[in-house]
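Entry 14. Structure prediction run on the chain below.
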Amino acid sequence: MARRTKEEAFETRESILDAAEQCFHKKGVSRTSLSDIAQAAGVTRGAIYWHFQDKADLLEALFQRIQLPLASLNQAARDASAPNPLERFRELLVTVLKRLESDPSSRRVNEILLLKCDYIDEPCTQKKHLQTMNRHHDDNLRTSLMLAIASGELPADLDIDMALFCAHSFIYGVLHQWLMQPQQLSLVERADDIAATLLDMLRNSPHLRSRCV
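Output returned:
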């Protein structure tokens, strides 16, 4: 009985997330109420509050859910004992880009996060959650860059802060641009080229070298 109850709770949570994903994507975050999500999921508002604090909490859970298939790649990209850290980062980036086009849920959640969050009408908690996610990405990316420097795959005098800022901007810019105009190119077909472009910039741009003597 306890196992069944646990399974039912998981199923309810997933149903709520499915409903939130559809509602946020259709109406935007600001215009979606918890009542809308409860109705779409076939549950009460109380059931939502049992699993989630608010809409910001739902957003974070949606993001974490699309990250699950990438967990092993994420871990490998930050594993100091594994060889070729830059190649592992490249593989992770290529996978993220391809999934954006090929996986409908990943595309919807990224559209919600990048295109359908209104930070003016909504409480600041949503923005804070997204800022926390950005910092988490920066921490992971910084680790990958430092491992690549240590392995000799990136220049020893790479300006980490500048490289981090440019790499993060490049990746988010690609995601945003493709979501706005997916007809421009196929991420499935060109993900390797996009990743190679970023790596070329990190390896070769003289403007990403430290100015400290």
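The chain has a mean pLDDT of 88.
Filed with the rest of this week's runs.
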